[in-house]
Amino acid sequence: xxxxxxxxxxxxxxxxxxxxxxxxxxxxxxxxxxxxxxxxxxxxxxxxxxxxxxxxxxxxxxxxxxxxxxxxxxxxxxxxxxxxxxxxxxxxxxxxxxxxxxxxxxxxxxxxxxxxxxxxxxxxxxxxxxxxxxxxxxxxxxxxxxxxxxxxxxxxxxxxxxxxxxxxxxxxxxxxxxxxxxxxxxxxxxxxxxxxxxxxxxxxxxxxxxxxxxxxxxxxxxxxxxxxxxxxxxxxxxxxxxxxxxxxxxxxxxxxxxxxxxxxxxxxxxxxxxxxxxxxxxxxxxxxxxxxxxxxxxxxxxxxxxxxxxxxxxxxxxxxxxxxxxxxxxxxxxxxxxxxxxxxxxxxxxxxxxxxxxxxx
Length: 361
Description:
Layout: H1 5-21, H2 26-39, E1 43-48, E2 62-64, E3 71-73, E4 85-89, H3 94-107, E5 111-116, H4 127-134, H5 137-141, E6 148-152, H6 167-172, E7 180-182, H7 187-199, E8 206-210, H8 224-229, E9 235-236, E10 247-251, H9 255-266, E11 271-276, E12 278-280, H10 284-291, E13 299-307, H11 313-319, E14 325-330, H12 341-355
Parallel strand pairs: 1-4, 1-5, 5-6, 6-8, 7-8, 10-11, 10-13, 13-14
Antiparallel strand pairs: 2-3, 7-12, 9-11
Helix pairs in contact: 2-7, 3-4
């Protein structure tokens, strides 16, 4: 068997992560989640417009022999498997494919059924499935469903059509524990989230806003111990000394790393960055326990890279039991992001700087 040189390099890099550096990235989190579930007897099914390779070339679940063109699904080669993985590059109809996958997940509750959008905003082609089935089926028909929706999301200068998965629209559909909405910042937390989806004794749809730049971000890595000893963390507290903190900043997803880099650059140990990994259900008691550690806080901020009329801000304003919560975000806009790369960078940096502006005594 002779794989393409790029595929061989990817396999070498993955082996190096496990056996040498102990810094595992997002692709390894997926492999570990799918592979461990298969060993435990669960099947895995993935579909979407570019899922075999992954839109951002991180997955490479199917490898091809350069000479014979024969395909290999590496996760199916494990002799310990009790389950099977199937993965399909789908046709370009989000509505049709997601409708089929929703029905598949309903008929096969012990299969981790995953639909991944090529970019998160492309999911609007399947809006009927989200509105009429995913968010409402249990309330209308007492019908549970464990489908997983992966929506690539993040502001990285790719324009208005390739930046936002429209977080605000999914959060607007959330009520009475009808589904789970998450925006993870670490590979290990994503791993535990996927496993939890099958290990629960009930089924709820799971919407995950997945990263793009974090797939290869040097800070967005986890150790083997994070996978083997940890569990899914709905909220991740900061590790700085709480006695020095005067401003608490709550954020979610990739924007956390933008803020973290800026904080280190400015050496601002008076600002805590708290990550909300699970946006819904939002458990305020867990947030309150974290807040109670910080005795000298004067400002509470929700920070997001999306415009003020988008993202999670409106939802947090309603659900967050903290009346003095303020926001740092882009202004109100009719499109998620600027088409101009220069304008995008200016707006993005302006939001980051506003998070670290002067704290009023």
